[in-house]
Amino acid sequence: MAAGTPQLPPTADPRSGFCRETKVFHNLRDPLPLPPESLPLSAASFALSLIPSPLPAQPALVDAATGAAVSYPDFLARIRNLAAALRTGAGVSRGDVAFVLSPAGLDVPVLYLALLSIGAVVSPANPLSAPSEIAHQIRLSNPSVAFTTTATASKLPAYLPTVLLDSPRFRSFISADAAAAAPQQPVEVRQSDTAAILYSSGTTGRVKGVALTHRNFVAMTAAYHSLTREEAEDDLPPVVLFTVPLFHVFGFMMALRAVVLGETIVLMERFHFGAMLRVVERYRVTYMPVSPPLVVAMAKSDEAARRDLSSLRVLGCGGAPLGRDVAERFAARFPHVEIVQVRFYIYSVVRLNFQDT
């Protein structure tokens, strides 16, 4: 066996890695080349270091409704400028929890990465939640600052310092002047520091806060980078349409994945099935993170059959298990599209295969 290849216990299943004696799943892949845990490193710094060089020619971000686009050089500049302004203009420090209550927009991925880069804790929530639910999440995360929009600001408590993403003040934060006024000493972020507090769906009780460290995200982004490098390159530029919310762990991780791989992120502020199909057609979307109900809808929809969805290569299905009958129905209608079952808290990717074993 080659050096670095994981050694499975003799009682482990060579196909799944599961050992019935210990009830432990063992990794079937080579160990990931991760940085030492003692190395000061933020999840943002690590993710941005993996972006292909030279920088991708296609946009980093696109607003599906307006067509507004942000290039990769501009995207990196906005992150750098905003990180500087958050320290000097908003007084955000390492360890501060930042509550984010905003619909999907071009500024949200920039905000996430800027906060992570200075060691602040990102805590995004559903902007459609009731004020009582938001109050509960705020009690869980105890934020020192909030980022929201004019439309959702009324749901936040008056005592919480708030920055409006649709305000001139925030626009000034991502300008070049913000970086010029920044302190020269970078923030030292430990990989063991909390990077994000994400929230459970509340299906088994009240919503719970889930704390994830920078090391968690470093490992996950390294896995994305490693897995994708093993795959053959396609003839189409990689374009990802976000049908899942950025405040959810699925959307949060998919945003990091897209950045690491130098893909174009297409964002819809509000999801509508027909609009989604038109966006896939217009922007030649190659990949979509989806939930099982969306796979069902695509498999049944007459409009989906009429649209030119030939650019689609992969659906990453997460949030819940995907039934085999649904996957087979989808595959019959879209044989050129691969379905990947994605899980996040323990990272794994399962490529669905419908052949009998």
From TrEMBL:
EC number: 6.2.1.12
UniProt superkingdom: Eukaryota
Pfam families associated with the record: AMP-binding
Reactions accelerated catalytically: (E)-4-coumarate + ATP + CoA = (E)-4-coumaroyl-CoA + AMP + diphosphate
Transmembrane segments: 246-268
Record bears the keyword Transmembrane helix: yes
Keywords for the protein's UniProt record, in alphabetical order: ATP-binding, Ligase, Membrane, Nucleotide-binding, Transmembrane, Transmembrane helix
GO molecular function: 4-coumarate-CoA ligase activity; ATP binding; trans-cinnamate-CoA ligase activity
Residue stretches making up the AMP-dependent synthetase/ligase domain: 56-341
Gene Ontology biological process terms in this record: phenylpropanoid metabolic process
SUPFAM superfamilies the record matches: Acetyl-CoA synthetase-like
Top-tier EC class: ligase
InterPro entries: AMP-binding_CS, AMP-dep_synth/lig_dom, ANL_N_sf
Family annotation (PANTHER family): 4-COUMARATE--COA LIGASE-LIKE 9, LONG-CHAIN-FATTY-ACID--COA LIGASE
Name listed for the protein in its UniProt record: 4-coumarate--CoA ligase
Protein species of origin: Musa troglodytarum
